[in-house]
Design a protein that fits this description.
By secondary structure, the chain is of the alpha+beta class. 25% of the residues lie in helices and 36% in strands. InterPro entries: YycI-like.
């Protein structure tokens, strides 16, 4: 039995264990949040309003997703191969990231930078593999415009698949960095996720949404669950990412909940200042 096969056996064993845990947690969460009372979700939302927590409209519908494995494209990978077609820029690889300086700056509208950059991203001679990315307003600010890679129909909210354009004070893009997740492989059949409403109320029940705050958005995207023993390979899972702004000190938290089993993913950045973010 070769080493690579052993790695995959351990990976599938982990996923099987995770599914067993997910099943038990799902039943526990269902009892805690849904089955204890017919309108338990509405009761929790009422408690949140009493604590002066405002929310976007929250969907009660379950969605679906996959466990996906992929490898961050390195200097000898697909990203490097496609980068050979780039023109009018100087690029190099640093580890598994492509860094490029444009020969001519690209002027963008600070409120809608995607109107110009969408054309740039779709041009194979300007951006390698650009058709796999889309503009992400939630991750962008006035100095950095972010495009995220699409993975199984959803965005990949991970540094493993992003284009980050640098914007100067004159609203010109002078260069960018890029990472790409290649060889994406679905590990298990599609499975249902918890709902948007479930994810938000679950965070509130665990005292992670403070009083006098605002839930600004909640998106289901793919994030990294774990690294494997293979070089640069990782497993990604559907994750509810919820951004919460505290009204008193105007800071933002991006909280994450594993959408398969409601596990709160605590290895995420704690908070950022909103001075450079749109409100």
């Amino acid at each position: 039995m070769n080493f690579k096969r052993i790695q995959w056996i351990f990976l599938f064993a982990f996923l099987l264990f995770d599914l067993v845990v997910a099943g038990s947690l799902f039943l526990q969460n269902r009892f805690t949040i849904s089955s204890s009372a017919p309108n338990r979700q509405e009761v929790i939302l009422k408690e949140m309003r009493a604590d002066e927590i405002t929310c976007i409209p929250l969907s009660r519908h379950a969605q679906s997703g996959y466990y996906i494995a992929g490898t961050r494209s390195g200097e000898n990978g697909e990203l490097n191969q496609q980068a050979n077609r780039l023109r009018d820029q100087n690029y190099h690889f640093s580890s598994d990231e492509l860094a490029s300086d444009l020969e001519t700056g690209v002027k963008v509208n600070p409120k809608h930078p995607e109107k110009r950059l969408d054309r740039l991203v779709r041009d194979d001679h300007s951006i390698a593999l650009g058709s796999h990315y889309q503009y992400d307003a939630q991750l962008s600010d006035q100095h950095t415009v972010v495009y995220t890679q699409r993975l199984a129909g959803r965005t990949l909210k991970s540094p493993d698949g992003q284009i980050r354009f640098r914007v100067n004070n004159d609203h010109e893009v002078l260069g960018y960095t890029q990472t790409y997740l290649e060889g994406a492989k679905i590990l298990r059949p599609k499975a249902n996720t918890i709902s948007q409403q479930h994810a938000v109320t679950w965070l509130y029940k665990h005292n992670l949404i403070p009083n006098n705050s605002q839930v600004r958005w909640a998106e289901l995207a793919y994030t990294k669950l774990l690294n494997t023993s293979s070089h640069n390979q990782a497993v990604y899972v559907p994750t509810w990412i919820i951004e919460v702004r505290t009204k008193n000190d105007d800071t933002v938290q991006q909280l994450r909940v594993n959408a398969f089993n409601s596990t709160i993913m605590r290895s995420t950045p704690g908070s950022v200042n909103t001075s450079s973010l749109g409100k």
